[in-house]
Amino acid sequence: MGPWPRGAGRPPRRLLRLLLLLGLARGVTGAHGVEGVDICATCHEHATCKQREGKKMCICKYGFVGNGRTQCVDKNECQLGATVVCGNHTSCHNTPGGFYCICLEGYRATNNNETFIPNDGTFCTDIDECEVSGLCGQGGRCVNTHGSFECHCGDGYVPKSGPEPFHPTRDATSCTEIDCGIPPEVPDAYIVGNYTSTLGSQVRYTCKEGFFGGPEGTVSSCTALGTWESPRLNCQDPRWPPSGSAARIPNEDLRSSLSRWLLLSVQRAFESAGGKVTSMCTERCTWRESSLTCTEIITEINALSVFNNTCVRWQINPGRINSTTVYVVHIVGHQVDPVESVHEETVNLTTDSRSPAVCLDLYQGTNYTVSISTAPPRRSVPARIGFQTAEEDLSEDGGIFNISVFNEACLKLNRHSRKVGPDQIYQFKIVGRRGYLNDFYHAVSFNFTTGERASVVCLDLYPATDYTVNITLLGSPEPHSVQVMITTAPAVKQTISDISIFNETCVRWRNTKIAGIEEMYLLHIQGQRWYQKEFAHEVTFNVTTRSQAPEMCLDLRPGTNYSVSIQALSSARPVVISLTTQITEPPLPEVDFFTVHGGPLPRLKLRKAQESNGPISSYQVLVVPLALQSTFSCDSQGAASFFSNASDANGYVAAELLARDVPEEAMEIAVGDRLYYGKYYNAPLKIGNDYCIILRIISEWNKVRRCSCAVWAQVKDSSLTLQQMAGVGLGSMAVVIVLAFLSFLAA
Question: Global pTM?
């Protein structure tokens, strides 16, 4: 540098020193630093202050979204839809910082409250309106449907004034009883007795005096169509051929028909003394009288006697007709002390023997009167005989018996006797309990009569049950009882059917056993994640219910493949079903929040998040204009790169890192370092603008995408980056060196 120009004075030394100090001051300060403030004092009213790794940060409370300091706005959980948030058959209602669910009409919450939040497993189940009697009115039958019910008319009733099925609050339909009205008339017949005209009612017809008809077609019933069945009874005048016949019918046909009818009567209750059995139709339409004569048979019963203690025999008078006869044997038995009727019975015996005999099932040690007569149409003079049966002899076996068990539920009763003895009555009392069910109780009692030496009784027992069976001999002078213990095995046949999944984490099934019987189910749940080899979720528990259609909501982890095994303890075979839970929002990013005014933005620390709610796919750094922070949606998929046309107005993605590229230890990212992260360019911030830096964690699995966001920094009146500030600092140092050199020359 040359000397100062002539005429110009040299700069004074004080001025040179002042310039040197200013240059040094500029080189030292460089730029404004980050504000140092009490973070907790600046937290929003809907935020809490937390300390992590020695640094304090403001985090919005549950149900709010924002940076935690200047803004925490309510998160509308219901925007995803009531079915997604609350489950089926619900409506979702947002509140500041939360939400609640209400079941739709026709459904109720399983926690029996009007409102609920589904994180405790509560869901909406159908209300069975049909439990209220009389809902459909007289004659109506209620049928439950999903969320409502409908009415049908029951048997014997038809709908009136409206459709079927119907709803009593919507339709004017009522059920009226079916009325078939007056029964149809039958020529030459009349109705016997009183009758009603409702569904199923019957009227019986009979021919008028002087007419005859067949035994069929005498009944007409009221049908579900409200009409009577057409009676088929055809009453005929015996003076004329059957209906439809006329003089054109050959006389030999009429003669044959009449002959058969007369012979039938003769064979049943009469005998013929001779004569013609035919009658002919004359030209005057009259029947010629027959010369046949019939004599009524009177059966004589003689020589009635008793043999083998309980058998009777007799003889009948010889007759000209040897036909089959029906005998009526009437038995009346009386005990000696006290005198009362203990056995009365009527037995029919059909035989063509002239020396009939029958053995009767009589009580021992009882006085009997036996009366024998013939059944109509034959007539007889009854014959009677009285006798006493022998006393029962228990000395043969003393009433002693034993019991053996086979085929699990069958008992063999063995009497200590060498021969078949009189019938004895055994009383069975059966009680079944299940040790794992306090309220389970199965009790049965019945009597069993047998005279055999060895009898078998098979019991209808429930599976997987401990039974006590007491057998007592009744009527013995000394009581004899035997007790046996039986434990039934679990059922081989599967008792669980129609298993299904609803509301993602709930299961329902049906029990094929008898309704009202308490059952215990063993549930074994195993969960695994392909993206977390070390993850394992295993739960085993029991549930007891009497319902034939149990429902159970399980506490499962999101983003997990589960295997659920359900086994009724009364069955030997479990049922296994697989289900997959959807992912939920990943954990909120752990960030150190910064607010920068006019200075450079420090390097931001990115910490790897835990995959507790599903596999994490990537991490994104977003630059959004500060004015759009309140309207920013974390789930938005429309984020663009810096070079897109809308980047200035809507913000852009500055960096994207795949989850596998993020180390376990924290890594640093400098916003605006002009590098590419994935397909996104990390552009420098424009000087003088206000920005919001957001860290977003993205989780994707099974075509479901979930995100969580946290505000990393707020930048107001942005300036040069640290790299740019370093360049400015080096330039300032160069100026200071030049000024110092000039000051040296001046000296």
Answer: 0.42
